[in-house]
Amino acid sequence: MRSALRHTLRTAAVGTAALGLVLFGAGAASAHVTVSATTTVAGSYTVLTVSVPHGCDGSGTTSVAISMPEQIIAVTPTINQGWDVEKKMEKLDTPVDNGHGGQYTERVDQVVYTAKDPLPEGFRDAFELSLKLPEEVGAKLVFPAIQKCEKGETPWTEVTEEGADEPEHPAPFIVLTAAEGAAPTAVPTESTAPSAAPVIAPSQVSADSAASSDSGGSGVVGWLGLVLGAIGAAAGVTALVRSRKTS
After folding, report:
1. Could you tell me if 48 and 128 are in contact, meaning their C-beta atoms sit under 8 angstroms apart?
2. What sign has the CA pseudo-torsion 185, 186, 187, 188?
3. CB-based contacts of 114: which residues, under 8 Å, 6+ apart?
4. What CA–CA distance (Å, rounded) separates 204 from 227?
5. In the sheet that 34-37 helps form, which strands lie side by side, from edge to edge?
6. Could you tell me the domains of the chain?
7. 84 forms bridges with which residues in the sheet?
8. Rounded to an integer, what distance in angstroms lies between the CA atom of residue 120 and that of residue 151?
């Protein structure tokens, strides 16, 4: 009986260990630096949240440098109390209208968060970036990130290709979408366009008037014929009565 009990305990221990390895593997595979957005609608303002879920092979995180796509010009990082933040700029070859009567002569190339104290392994943090999205629906915006740690670093810079397996260190990205309920401008058709009043030619008016006159004259003649016929019938009856009295 003791032998059977020991066998059962060993089997349970092996199964628990195997399940632990599976769960650990699933957690490690999904524990990437990621980006999410309050909206992905093209041309809109959004707030990106870049999440850092772990360190580098057990070492605490000391900084995260987030690169901006070339289409992004201006970025407003949110202050994080545990980190210093810096915007690294890049000069533009051609100035860009800023929408307020001025021009951008440089763009934000990177936003770098540096930890005041290293973020320990097993803890996460997140950084928020406010910006305007480009107008191109369907565009894929990639935000490569370099995570530096007390020992080593992890480059989250590998672009995920459509239809291919996810790389070991995928770069965070979003895809721009169209606004919900957006529809093309309606074009008036024969069924929706207002109909024009029919145009009547003068000749048609004359013909209609003549027809009305003709129909009126025919009616008068008919009524006169009926009256005369009735008078004639009455006269004939009177003559017949007189002739019988005379005879």
Report:
1. yes
2. negative
3. 62, 63, 83, 84, 85, 86
4. 36
5. 34-37, 45-52, 125-132, 75-77
6. 33-85+111-175 (2.60.40.2230)
7. 114
8. 12
Residue appearing with tokens 């909206």: 39
Q: Which residue has the tokens 């632990």?
A: 20
The answer to whether 142 and 74 are in contact (CB under 8 A) is: no
User: Tens digit of pLDDT for each residue in 138-183?
Assistant: 999 999 999 999 999 999 999 988 888 999 999 999 999 999 876 5
Residue 236 pLDDT level (bands cut at 50, 70, 90): low
Strand order in the sheet with 103-119: 83-97, 103-119, 61-67, 145-149, 153-156
pTM flag (> 0.90): no
Q: And the tokens for 127? A: 């950084």
What three-state secondary structure class fits 120? coil
